[in-house]
Amino acid sequence: MKIYSFKQNTGKSIQKFNSQNVTIHPLLKPDEPFQIGYFYLEANSVLGMHPAMCDQLLMITSGSGWVRIEGEDKIEVEPGMAVFWQKGEMHESGSATGMTAIVAEGSRLDPERYLTLG
Fold first, then answer.
1. Which string of DSSP letters, residue by residue, matches 92-113?
2. Where along the chain do its domains lie?
3. Which fold has domain 10-109?
4. pLDDT tens string 46-96
5. Are the CB atoms for 55 and 16 separated by under 8 Å?
6. Kindly report the CA angle at 35 between 86 and 60, in degrees rounded to 5?
7. 15-51 pLDDT, tens per residue?
8. Closest CA to 37 of 114, 93, 86, 103
């Protein structure tokens, strides 16, 4: 058995897209275009507006925050909610109080197969 850490202070800070106070731990990045990561969005954070490089699913695990697509209002999100963006969709996310989330990115994502809209 091995015990690993993915605490916030050991992750990779995201600076692109005018992002602030966001840290990620890439967890899986195989040869095929698919990635899983764990996000820490601190209080007063924003992961700036950017295009989805491939289909993306953001699954909120703790805290609360917001998401939006270009030209639309922010939508509040909380644990148990998952947000899906299609490849090329301009989007951003953030949190006033702090939020953590798992992000899965890849062309074969099919959340409607396993998740309930709501």
1. EEEESS-EEEEEEEETT--HHH
2. 10-109
3. Jelly Rolls (2.60.120)
4. 999 999 989 999 999 999 999 999 999 999 999 989 999 999 999 999 999
5. no
6. 70
7. 888 888 988 866 555 566 788 889 999 999 999 999 9
8. 103
